[in-house]
Design goal:
Distance between the termini: 36 Å
Number of helices: 24
Number of strands: 17
Largest sheet: 7 strands, parallel
CATH topology of the largest domain: TIM Barrel
Radius of gyration: 26 Å
Shape: globular
Helix content: 40-55%
Length: 572
DNA sequence: GCCGTTTTCGGCCCGACTGTTTTCAGTCG
C-alpha cells in the first residue's frame, strides 16, 4: 500500500466522520495527516517498518493505523466506519455545493445513497421542501452532478497560465485596477491545478468585477459578490477573483496564495504573538491596530519570518526555516545556462541540429546536449552506432561555426528490460555526456526496475538518468521503484537525476527533487525538446526545482560548459 | 486526533457568498 492509497483512506475517514457530524478537529487531524502523507516522497512502507513515522500531524494513533495498513493492507477502524454508511454518500459529497450536512439530510429524509438517486430526486423535485432546501438548490445539485461527470482531470500548468493571462489582460484594461496577481496553486506553480485564482488591488471592485465577467473566457457566472466572484470558462475551469483595497494587497496575496495548510500555520504563529492575520492585514489582537498588509514581505516580517517564496508555501517546514533564517535561495530561470536534453530530426525530433542550436542560443544558453534516442527505440528512429558517428561529423562542423555556444554530443540511451544498455561502452565513451532512460517494461516488479536503474547508474559513462519515474501526468502512473536505493547509487556514482520539463512529465516531481537534494544528488534540467519552441518549457522544470527547494548549486546546468564537463566525471 | 517558549489538558485560522432566512447555516477556499 503506497502513500497515495493510505492518504485516500484518511481522506475518506474524514469525509465519513464529517457526515456523522463528529468533532471538527478530529476530522481536520485526518485531513492534515493525509495531506502530509501525500506531500512526502518517502515511502511510507519503509517509514512504518523502520519506526520512522515522524510525519507532522501523525501522532501515536494514526501511526498505529498506518502500521496496520502497511502490514495487513486493511484498517479495521475504516472498515467498520465504511459499513455504517453507504459508499455513495462520499460520492455525493464531491458534488460542488453539496457538503456533509446536505448529504446527511438527503440520506436521512429521502434515503438518497448515490449520485444517480440524487439526480433522479432532483429532477422529480423531491428535494424542494426539505428543511432549508428549495428549487434553487435542486438546480444547483443538477448542475453540480453534470460537472463531476465531465472528465475531471486537473489541468496542466501551461494551460492554466494561458487562461490566467487572458483574464489578467482583460482586467489590466481597467485603470482602477492598481495591482493584479495570480494566486492559489497556480502561483505556487503546482504541476497541475484544479482552478485559477486571481487577486486584484483596487478601490473600485465593481469595475474590476465587471471586466472579469466580460472576459471572453467566461462561459458562466458562478458567484458574484461585492469583492469575491467566480466564473467557469468554456473549458470548464473555475476562476475565482478577489478584489481588495491596495493597502491590503500583500495580506490578501498571502491569504489567497495559500496553501491552506501554510495559512493555518502562519495564523497559528500570529496568534501566539497576540496578533490576528486575515486577508486585510496583520492586526493586534487587542485594540485591532493594523501592523502590516500592503506587501507580503511586511506580513512575514511582522511574524518574525523572512519572505517565503510562493513555491515553498506547502507547510513542509518552510515556516520553521523562515523563522530560523534558513530558507534556500531558490534557483531562477536566468540561472540556467544550457539545456541538457534535446532531440533533433536524427531521431524523433522535428528540426535540424542547427535549428535547435539557434533556438537554444536565442534563449541565452551557452550549450545544449543533443541526446537523440538509441537504436532499440525503433518508433523514435533511434540511432545505430553508425548513424551516431555520422551525427558526430555534423555536430563538429556546427561547433566550428558557432560562437559562444557549444553543442555537446550525447545520447538518450535505452535501459533495456534486462538492465543492459542499448549501446556498448566503447560507443558511450566517445560521447560528451550520456543520458539513460527506461522506455519499456513499466510493469516489471519494484525490484527489477530498481535493479535496472541502479545498474545503469553503475555504468561508468552514464551521467544522467532522465525522466526517472516514467510517469505521464493524468495518463500513466510512475513505475514502482525504490527511490532511496536509486538516490544512494546516484550519490555513490556521481550520477545526476533529471527533472524532465515536458509539461506532461515533470519527472522527477517536486517531492522527489527535495529528497534528492537532501541526499546530495545533483539535478539536471532538460526540456526533452523535440522542436525549437519546446525550449520554452524550461520554466516548468525550474518551477519543479523551486518547489523542491533547489538552489543554483544543486542544478547541473547552472554550471558553465567547462565546469559541467568537469562535474559530470565519474570516479568509479 | 494532534500538540506544547503559557499548556500533558484544552485548545485547535478566518472570512465571503449563496440560499434560505429575517439573523443564519452550509459551503468553499
Amino acid at each position: 500500500m503506497n502513500n497515495k492509497e493510505i492518504a485516500e483512506i484518511f481522506w475518506a475517514i474524514a469525509d465519513i466522520l464529517e457526515i456523522k457530524d463528529e468533532n471538527f478537529f478530529r476530522i481536520r487531524a485526518y485531513r492534515r495527516a493525509a495531506q502530509n502523507i501525500e506531500n512526502i516522497a518517502d515511502d511510507i512502507n519503509v517509514l512504518a517498518r523502520e519506526q520512522r513515522l515522524n510525519i507532522p500531524g501523525v501522532g501515536a494513533d494514526l501511526a498505529r493505523k498506518i502500521k496496520e495498513l502497511v502490514e495487513t493492507g486493511r484498517l479495521a477502524y475504516f472498515e467498520t466506519l465504511s459499513q455504517s454508511l453507504p459508499a455513495g454518500l462520499l460520492q455525493i459529497m464531491t458534488i460542488p455545493g453539496v457538503g456533509p450536512k446536505t448529504t446527511k439530510l438527503l440520506y436521512e429524509q429521502l434515503k438518497i445513497d448515490s449520485v444517480d438517486a440524487l439526480e433522479k430526486a432532483a429532477k422529480n423535485h423531491e428535494i424542494a421542501g426539505l428543511f432549508g432546501l428549495k428549487e434553487k438548490t435542486e438546480e444547483n445539485i443538477l448542475k453540480g452532478i453534470a460537472l463531476i461527470r465531465q472528465s475531471h482531470e486537473k489541468i496542466l500548468l501551461p494551460e492554466a497560465m494561458r487562461i490566467a493571462g487572458l483574464i489578467i489582460a482583460e482586467i489590466k484594461k481597467v485603470k482602477e485596477a492598481k495591482q493584479i496577481s495570480i494566486a492559489g496553486s497556480l502561483r505556487r506553480q503546482k504541476e497541475t491545478v484544479r482552478d485559477i485564482d486571481i487577486l486584484v488591488g483596487s478601490n473600485q471592485p465593481q469595475k474590476v468585477t465587471d471586466a472579469f465577467m466580460r472576459s471572453e473566457v467566461a462561459a458562466e457566472v458562478l458567484a458574484r459578490g461585492a469583492t469575491k466572484s467566480a466564473i467557469r470558462t468554456h473549458e470548464g475551469i473555475q476562476v475565482d477573483m478577489r478584489v481588495v483595497a491596495p493597502d491590503s494587497f500583500g495580506a490578501a496575496l498571502v491569504y489567497f496564495t495559500g496553501s491552506k495548510e501554510h495559512n493555518i500555520r502562519i495564523r497559528e504563529l500570529a496568534k501566539k504573538k497576540k496578533l490576528k492575520i486575515n486577508e486585510y492585514g496583520v492586526f493586534e489582537e487587542e485594540g485591532g491596530r493594523c501592523l502590516a498588509g500592503r506587501t507580503e514581505e511586511d506580513v512575514y516580517r511582522i511574524l518574525g519570518l523572512v519572505y517565503i517564496e510562493p513555491e515553498l508555501r506547502e507547510d513542509t517546514r518552510e515556516v520553521e526555516a523562515a523563522a530560523a533564517g534558513k530558507l534556500p535561495k531558490l534557483i531562477k530561470l536566468k540561472d540556467v545556462r544550457g539545456d541538457l536534453h534535446v532531440h533533433s530530426h536524427w531521431s524523433d525530433g522535428t528540426a535540424s541540429i542547427a535549428a535547435m542550436a539557434a533556438a537554444a542560443q536565442a534563449k541565452g544558453y551557452e550549450y545544449m546536449v543533443i541526446s537523440d534516442h538509441s537504436q532499440w527505440l525503433g518508433v523514435a528512429k533511434g540511432l545505430t552506432p553508425g548513424r551516431l558517428a555520422q551525427q558526430k561529423k555534423e555536430i563538429e562542423a556546427l561547433n566550428k561555426k558557432l560562437k559562444n555556444f557549444t553543442i555537446l554530443r550525447g545520447t538518450e540511451v535505452d535501459i533495456k528490460s534486462d538492465g543492459t544498455l542499448d549501446f556498448a561502452d566503447d560507443v558511450l565513451s566517445g560521447l560528451d555526456i550520456v543520458l539513460a532512460a527506461i522506455h519499456s517494461g513499466f510493469k516489471q516488479s519494484r525490484e527489477q526496475i530498481t535493479e535496472r536503474l541502479v545498474k545503469a547508474m553503475q555504468n561508468p559513462y552514464v551521467n544522467i538518468i532522465v525522466h526517472p519515474s516514467g510517469r505521464l501526468i493524468n495518463e500513466r502512473a510512475a513505475y514502482d521503484f525504490d527511490f532511496e536505493a536509486v538516490l544512494n547509487t546516484a550519490k555513490k556514482t556521481n550520477t545526476a537525476l533529471e527533472v524532465n520539463c515536458y509539461p506532461k512529465r515533470l519527472d522527477l516531481d517536486d517531492r522527489h527533487v527535495r529528497k534528492a537534494k537532501e541526499a546530495g544528488v545533483l539535478i539536471a534540467l532538460g526540456t526533452d525538446s523535440h522542436a525549437p519552441e519546446q525550449f520554452n518549457s524550461m520554466c516548468l522544470g525550474v518551477s519543479v526545482a523551486r518547489r523542491g527547494w533547489l538552489e543554483k548549486k544543486d542544478v547541473l546546468n547552472c554550471l558553465s560548459c567547462k565546469e559541467l564537463r568537469k562535474r559530470i566525471k565519474k570516479w568509479i
